[in-house]
């Protein structure tokens, strides 16, 4: 499905406002990503958006095709490039780890994007993939209301098993899976403790390793 760049360009403030009003959701997601994020090395954030996640996780480099989002990330001191996941403007074997946070649902070609991640990662590099599981509470809520939600109107959600299959097909080995956002998002009133595995939390984070 196409990435609706214009919608993201026109709704930076709404995007920022949502995370400000749902801070415990955001902090729970950050906490879960940190469980698998390498502590050092050169990292790349694909689909940096306004830089909320990149800034919190201290990842300076990234790509973002929506100009208004990119400009906001630059204001945060980050260095996003104008590019898409299916055609990364980096040399082979450049990064120690790559992060994608709620990006796969907007990709034109997920297999090509994973191929590009594999290409730019160093040998034994780490791919951290965070997404909303389509079979989860929030996944089902999104699918039910997607025609009324501009951010997700053209999105294609995936299940954990579908993502795992795509990773293996792209020559990645799944090393660890974490989850958070248990229950309805509007009922989350504290920072949740991440749990291993998938199937209960709406927000799933996979740590995968690049096979040689």
Task: Annotate the secondary structure layout.
Elements: H1 5-10, H2 12-21, H3 23-34, E1 43-46, H4 52-57, E2 61-63, H5 67-75, E3 79-81, E4 95-101, H6 110-120, E5 121-132, H7 137-145, H8 160-169, E6 172-180, E7 195-196, E8 203-210
Parallel strand pairs: 1-2, 1-4, 2-3, 4-5
Antiparallel strand pairs: 5-8, 6-7, 6-8
The overall average pLDDT, rounded, is: 94
Shape: globular
Identify the quaternary structure here. Answer: single chain
CATH class: Alpha Beta
Core attributes:
single chain, 212 residues, alpha/beta, Rossmann fold, eight-stranded mixed sheet, 8 helices, 8 strands, 23% strand
Structural write-up:
The chain has 212 residues and is of the alpha/beta class. It has one domain (5-83, 92-210): Rossmann fold, CATH 3.40.50.150. Helix content is 34%, strand content 23%. The chain has helices at 5-10, 12-21, 23-34, 52-57, 67-75, 110-120, 137-145, 160-169; strands at residues 43-46, 61-63, 79-81, 95-101, 121-132, 172-180, 195-196, 203-210. An eight-stranded mixed sheet has the order 3-2-1-4-5-8-6-7, sandwiched between helices. Helix 6 links the parallel strand 4 (95-101) and strand 5.
Short description:
This protein is of the alpha/beta class and 212 residues long.
């Amino acid at each position: 499905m196409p990435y609706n760049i214009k919608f993201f360009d026109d709704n930076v403030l709404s995007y920022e406002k949502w995370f400000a009003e749902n801070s415990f959701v955001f902090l729970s997601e950050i906490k879960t990503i940190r469980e698998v994020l390498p502590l050092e090395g050169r990292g790349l954030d694909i689909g940096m958006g306004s830089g909320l996640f990149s800034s919190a996780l201290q990842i300076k480099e990234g790509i973002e095709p929506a100009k208004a989002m990119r400009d906001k990330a630059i204001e945060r001191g980050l260095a996003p490039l104008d590019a898409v996941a299916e055609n990364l403007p980096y040399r082979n074997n450049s990064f120690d780890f790559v992060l994608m946070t709620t990006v796969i649902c907007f990709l034109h070609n997920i297999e090509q994007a994973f191929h590009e991640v594999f290409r730019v990662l160093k040998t034994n590099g780490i791919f951290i993939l965070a997404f909303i599981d389509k079979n989860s509470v929030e996944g089902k809520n999104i699918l039910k209301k997607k025609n009324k939600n501009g951010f997700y109107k053209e999105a294609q959600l995936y299940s954990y098993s579908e993502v795992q299959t795509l990773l293996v097909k792209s020559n990645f080995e799944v090393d660890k899976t974490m989850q958070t956002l248990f229950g309805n998002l509007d009922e989350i009133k504290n920072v949740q403790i991440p749990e291993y595995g998938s199937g209960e939390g709406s927000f799933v984070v996979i740590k995968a390793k690049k096979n040689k």
